[in-house]
Amino acid sequence: MQENELKRGIGMMASLATVMGTVIGGGVFFKTASVVQSTHSFTLTILAWTIGGLLTICAGLTVSELAAAIPKTGGAIKYLDYTYGPLTGFSMGWAQILVYYPANIAAESIVFSTQIINLFHLNGGLLNPIAIGCALSILIINLLGSKVSGNVQTIALIFKLIPIFIIAIIGLFIPGEVNVSLFPISPINHDSLWSAFGAGLLATMFAYDGWIGVCDVAGEIKNPKKNLPKAIILGLSFITIIYTLINVVFLKTLPIDQIAGNQNTASEAAIKLFGELGGKLVTIGILVSVYGSLNGYTLSGMRIPYAMGKSKSLPFSNAFTKLTKKTLVPYVAGLFQLFIAILMIFAGSFDLLTDMLVFVMWIFNCLLFIAVFRLRRKEPEMIRPYKVPWYPIIPIIALVGGIFILFETIISQTGLALVGILLTVLGIPVYYLQQRHLKNNS
Known about the structure:
It is built from 19 helices and no strands. By secondary structure, it is an all-alpha fold. The chain is globular, with a radius of gyration of 21 Å. Residues 1-6 have low confidence and may be disordered.
């Protein structure tokens, strides 16, 4: 492993900022509608957000062991490659190219468009054109170079925290018009508390998405045995508390029936709390946050087909490696990603797209959790600068939670799950055809 060692220059505060910066996005503002629609209960809604956060903490602590022990550029793809072989690693990269990043871009563009229409009282028929224009503008910004896109990300990081703290902290102390209580627990849209909670938990996973990005820098963290678990536990615990408080504010400000299925919940709650002008300013902050998330997904996403093209893993690999002359950005990869995202904008809603990408990625997350057990057994002598605490309890919680998410999606959204599986499995013949092509040309 010596030749792959990275310089350990990231301290505790930088690690904490990385955790929070990669996870906090617009999901908490827009997934509340789906969670409440599933649970139709104050108690189950808060429980779903809390358990979702705890599951995310266990997942981050578990996968970080792989990241610290296998500090290779490429992140989770390389951990799967190392543990299971190149086909599994390729399959995750393929799923990211075809599902994860385009679906994120499409979903975030849709909610950005929804908020623009709501803010300026525009015609609902403009939803798709505004969403496409939003995604296209982000790609153009990224084609101007990493410095420009990096500046956008920095500005968005500042703005994304403003509406979160205003709603979660100030909103908590403003008297609400809705009486909330833990009991009775009465989901009305499901046959049982269990199915209501399961659907709600599944909906929260998109808001917590991004935790695996923390693992990409695990090999560069100073004193990872101490700082990595501390950053994950503190960062994700803080996010869980903030997310939960935001939902408490929503639920005490608006009636449950007004929240369920309403993606304008955040802006409507902000207007009710802070008045028309204050509410609009908070909504603008949310829009900047979503725009920043879009920028992050575009920036990272276009580099996956570029990296796979460099290794000749994909058909038309040479095209995916083409860079702009001045700014050296993989423009073909970016255009390909935008094309798929536009198809998804026309094909799906925000909830449909986010549930599909969560389902597909958690297939690979479960494989990563299993990899920790597998490598502990097969390679006990492997140098592990960081080991998951309370092994095997934490990895077991992560794995059981992951399996629950997968089964909940398969049971409640069978068609969506099948589409996600089909798109992922399509990568297998592509992998073997490309390997045969490389062999014939060698």
